[in-house]
Structures are given as C-alpha cells and as structure tokens.
Design brief:
By secondary structure, this protein is α/β, with parallel strands linked by helices. It is 42% helix and 20% strand. It has helices spanning 11-21, 33-41, 60-68, 87-96, 108-119; strands spanning 3-7, 26-30, 48-52, 78-82, 100-103. The protein binds magnesium ion.
C-alpha cells in the first residue's frame, strides 16, 4: 500500500480526504507541517504529500521549499491545496517543484484521480 500524507490545519479536511483515500492508501494526517518534518526525520518516507498553503506555524510553501531543498525528501511528489485560485501563486509553486495545485473547495474524487496519476 502506498503512503500518502496530508497536512492541513483544518482537521475536517483531513477527515474528508481520509474517507476517500484510506481504503487504497496508507493515509496519515497532520495538522501542522512541523509535525510532518519531524515524522520524515524519524525515517518515514511517504509516496506523496498533500499540503495546504495557509497554515499558522509554517506555510505550505515553506514546507515545499524545505522538501525540495533536501537531497532525500526532494523526490517526494507534493500536491498543494490553495484557498485561492491565483495564477501567480500556482506558477510560483509549480516552479518551486510542486507536482500539482488544487484550489479549495475541491472535489475529493478529483484529488484522488490526480493522486493516482502521479503515483500509480
Ligand atoms: Mg489552512
């Protein structure tokens, strides 16, 4: 089973996405990017990370930058979740190494299909 991590400060998003993904994937939810980094540093290696952008302690783009600057973690595909459909933000994040960019509110089924295209 492939491993997917979602980080979003809204627990409801974590639960909804979990309903759609946890049958086919090993799904782990975090409410804070710092916890994701800690989890990775412990030796965990997911097949994909889905990250919200606007979060209090660390922004999703900072997490993306951290991952893409790391020799080991940079291979993990990252899908960004944005609360605004901003072309400049999308371009910046795709350029920074994000695999995909999805605007909230999103259809979880669409997220699932996009994920499948990236990791299967
Ligand atoms: Mg948020």
């Amino acid at each position: 089973m492939k491993k997917i991590v979602l980080v979003d400060d809204k627990e409801s998003i974590g639960k909804i996405v979990g309903l759609y993904l946890s049958k086919e994937y090993e799904y782990t939810y975090f409410d804070n990017p710092l916890k994701v980094i800690h989890w990775l540093q412990e030796g965990n290696m997911p097949d994909l990370i889905i990250s919200d952008i606007r979060m209090p302690d660390m922004k999703g783009d900072e997490l993306l930058h951290y991952l893409k600057s790391n020799i080991i973690f940079k291979q993990i595909p990252v899908v960004m979740l944005s609360s605004e459909d901003s072309t400049s933000e999308r371009i910046r994040l795709l350029e920074e190494g994000a695999e995909d960019y999805i605007v909230k509110p999103f259809n979880p089924l669409e997220l699932k299909i996009r994920i499948k295209k990236i990791i299967n």
